[in-house]
Design brief:
Layout (H helix, E strand, L loop, with lengths): L2 H16 L11 H5 L4 E7 L4 H9 L5 H11 L3 E7 L7 H14 L15 E8 L3 E7 L6 H6 L6 H9 L6 E6 L4 E4 L9 H12 L7 E6 L1 E5 L1
Antiparallel strand pairs: 1-2, 1-3, 3-8, 4-7, 5-6, 5-7
Length: about 230
């Protein structure tokens, strides 16, 4: 198992099982002790292997209908995701530990992870590169109609800029309003296929109005998975 994922998984297990914060291990790789970066930790439910459940079905422990519901409800489903786009700790290792605990216990969208769930979860760790400002003070990035109508931006110009500078598979996106509201979306997420979708979701997450000016940042990640 990758060392980044192993550290996140151990931090989650220690917190869920014992309510304790994992101590920094002595054998932690040098690169995560000496470097700082923003980190996101994501928790997903594992796809259930049907073959491993058949003995339970055959013995009557699990009904066929119940098993179907488990398969439908569990496969790949997000269970928690928390992170920081800029470093807040002394090193990457501490950033991973803190965000792993937050992902399993402080994501407001989900109940805290339970002990009996641990073996059915998959962990991924995204280490973020420093965000890069690509556009600023934009209104409605998908169409730029207010700017086009006022002559500030030519029709199609903004769309071309976004296409050239944003790639949903390669870059994550951060949007920030003038009053500091900030939304972030990681790259290469299922169901997010265009830069327009990225920006719209970021604005919704941040509570930024449709016509509110925003700065747009892009960033790359190194993703580690089980």
């Amino acid at each position: 198992m990758n060392q980044y994922v192993k550290l996140a998984k151990n931090a989650i297990n220690e917190f869920v099982k014992n309510g304790k914060v994992l101590k920094l291990p002595d054998d932690a790789p040098k690169e995560i002790i000496e470097k700082r970066a923003g980190v996101f930790v994501s928790i997903h439910k594992k796809p259930i292997n049907l073959s491993t459940m058949l003995p339970q079905v055959n013995s009557g422990q699990v009904g066929a209908g119940q098993l179907s519901n488990q398969l439908i409800n569990q496969e790949g489903e997000l269970r928690g995701c928390i992170g920081t786009f800029l470093p807040t700790k002394a090193n990457i290792a501490l950033e991973i530990i803190d965000n792993a605990i937050s992902a399993c216990s402080r994501d407001y969208r989900f109940e805290p992870v339970r002990f009996d769930e641990l073996e059915y979860l998959e962990i991924s760790v995204d280490v973020l590169n420093e965000p890069e400002l690509i556009t600023n003070n934009l209104i409605n990035p998908s169409t730029a109609l207010p700017q086009v109508n006022s002559g500030q931006v030519g029709a199609g110009q903004l769309t071309s800029q976004l296409i050239n500078q944003l790639n949903v598979k390669k870059y994550g996106v951060i949007v920030k309003s003038d009053d500091g509201k900030t939304g972030l979306l990681l790259p290469d997420l299922e169901g997010v296929d265009t830069p327009d979708q990225q920006i719209t979701i970021c604005k919704q997450k941040a509570g930024i109005n449709f016509d509110e000016p925003i700065d747009i940042y892009r960033f790359e990640v190194t993703r580690y998975k089980e």
